[in-house]
Design brief:
By secondary structure, the chain is α+β, with helices and mostly antiparallel strands. It contains 18 helices and 23 strands.
Length: 522
């Protein structure tokens, strides 16, 4: 495609906010807007979103970003070629195909209400917690969409009736947005992509299709499920009634997969995204690597209907940036998230404090939904700066736990190292602007951390997938990672091996204290 003014839009629908960003052909942002939306907590451990509020947040972000770019002299109306979409994964909803209305709030990925469903399945199925792992790469966990769908089927009468009358449509957030953006009741396209589908527990990782035996075992009707498509292909045009109309949606990836693409992670390269949670993915190439150390096997990306599939090992951490929000909103220790770096820098160490944010259990590599948060090692010497620093350290220790498992599963041959023999961790997400956090991460790992100039790689990855499908970019241009690293910041470890080892031992002791606490009396 020639060098005239060309733009690609990207919808980035996250757990706490929605963004819309517009990129030019040089991958520079020319307009963006972000809005937060409500988190709904009906009971302890339950987290929901209002699907209609999410739709409205997309509408507002589109309009505002378009206005900003136009005001800066960019002719978006004539130059916009495609829209990409990326989203919070696993979050589950069911809506009526005849009315277009949700039949219940969206159940968010970190919601833990399905622990009873999980325990029941583990007892009834011959393979226990890993019964479906060989097919879908995932253990039975409250995290994944299938068990959220089962809960809706068992507990919400409107859902039961809609499925019975063939009026129900199931989807993760990508599916809900695409259906509405492409017309909704008037011909909306009911699809999901391979990366989002790989997080449901229902897709066969090898065939990239819904797994019939799994559906039969769980009693899920295949008619309610969306069609699975690749991450980079024209899905449908945006319908009238939106701030942008007639433009193709041609890229769709779950947020962590989009970040991998935005970071140009090839086989053997890993990235860690720090958002509400933290998510570490290692591209394992065209081979599925089944984890023996508590990680998930998942799709990395499939860049076209006929393209080869890249797979990944993933470690998912439920609470990362959300712990900072907790300090701000629930404890009032800070007034804004950005204050935590200054506060934590007031002390040289945590003073022996270890904080484990197991608010709704622990994900990888522990998989303990009976865990609850602990803060240990407190004395009269402890102050709020120690606690703030312990919260930052907790993110880094959790990432280190996942990377240790990754090294064991992938082995020396499965990881790319630089000329110095160092394994580089690419990082992105909102929390990575915190230099102290990045330095602690390098110290805890004992290896370098590389932060790109633009840390919002999730939206960029979705834009890349969309642009690739319509000829704005080639794969070679997207994966020209040597250009990206020229403007990156590298953090190198500053502490010695002996101190690192002692801190990691103390962290493991703290993690062990979180187990079997879910039934503590109110």
């Amino acid at each position: 495609m020639s060098k005239e003014a060309v733009y690609v839009g990207s919808i980035d629908q996250g757990t706490t906010s929605t963004r819309f960003r517009i990129y030019d052909r040089d991958s520079r942002t020319v307009g963006s807007h972000q809005v937060e939306f409500n988190q709904i907590y009906p009971e302890a451990g339950w987290v929901e979103h209002d699907p209609m509020e999410i739709l409205e947040s997309v509408r507002v972000c589109m309009a505002k970003a378009l206005d900003k770019a136009t005001a800066d002299g960019h002719n978006i109306d004539s130059g916009l070629k495609a829209i990409g979409l990326t989203n919070q994964r696993e979050t589950t909803l069911i809506w009526s195909k005849s009315t277009g209305s949700p039949l219940y709030n969206a159940i968010v990925w970190m919601d833990a209400r399905t622990s009873g469903v999980c325990r029941k399945l583990e007892k009834e199925l011959s393979g226990g917690r890993t019964h479906f792992s060989e097919v879908c790469g995932l253990p039975i966990s409250t995290y994944f969409s299938a068990v959220k769908l089962l809960w809706l089927m068992e507990n919400v009468n409107a859902v039961k009736e809609a499925i019975k009358s063939e009026d129900a449509l199931f989807g993760t957030i990508d599916t809900w947005l695409i259906w509405n953006l492409t017309g909704g009741l008037n011909g909306g396209v009911h699809v999901t992509d391979v990366s989002n589908a790989s997080r449901t527990m229902l897709m066969n990782l090898k065939t990239l299709e819904w797994d019939q035996p799994t559906l039969e075992t769980l009693g899920i009707c295949p008619k309610i499920l969306p069609k699975i498509v690749s991450n980079s292909e024209v899905i449908g045009d945006i319908a009238t009634g939106w701030p942008i109309t007639g433009i193709p949606i041609s890229g769709c990836l779950g947020d962590q997969h989009a970040a991998m693409l935005g970071q140009a992670c090839r086989k053997g390269e890993a990235k860690s995204t720090y958002g509400t949670g933290a998510f570490i993915l290692l591209n394992t190439g065209e081979e599925i690597t089944m984890s023996k150390h508590g990680l998930l096997s998942t799709v990395a990306f499939k860049l076209g209907p006929e393209a080869l599939t890249n797979y990944a090992l993933e470690g998912s951490i439920a609470i990362a940036g959300a712990a900072v929000q907790w300090l701000r909103d629930s404890l009032g220790i800070i007034k804004s998230a950005s204050e935590i770096e200054t506060l934590a820098s007031e002390v040289e160490s945590t003073g022996g404090i270890y904080f484990v944010p197991a608010f709704n259990g622990l994900f990888a590599p522990w998989w303990r939904d009976d865990a609850r948060g602990v803060c240990i090692g407190m004395t009269r010497f402890t102050n709020k700066a120690h606690i703030a620093r312990a919260v930052l350290e907790s993110m880094c220790f959790q990432v280190k736990d996942v990377l240790d498992s990754m090294h064991k599963d992938a082995g020396e041959q499965g990881e790319v190292k630089n000329e110095k023999g160092e394994f580089l961790l690419r990082v992105d997400g909102g929390a990575t602007v915190n230099n102290l956090l990045m330095q602690i991460q390098a110290d805890v790992m004992g290896s370098p951390v590389v932060r790109p100039a633009d840390t919002e790689t999730t939206a960029l990855g979705a834009a890349y997938a969309a642009g690739l499908a319509v000829g704005v970019w080639t794969e070679e241009e997207i994966f020209a990672s040597e250009e990206k690293t020229k403007t990156a910041t590298t953090f190198r470890p500053k502490i010695g091996e002996e101190l690192r080892k002692k801190k990691l031992e103390s962290w493991c002791k703290a993690v062990s204290r979180t187990f079997d606490l879910a039934d503590l009396s109110l």
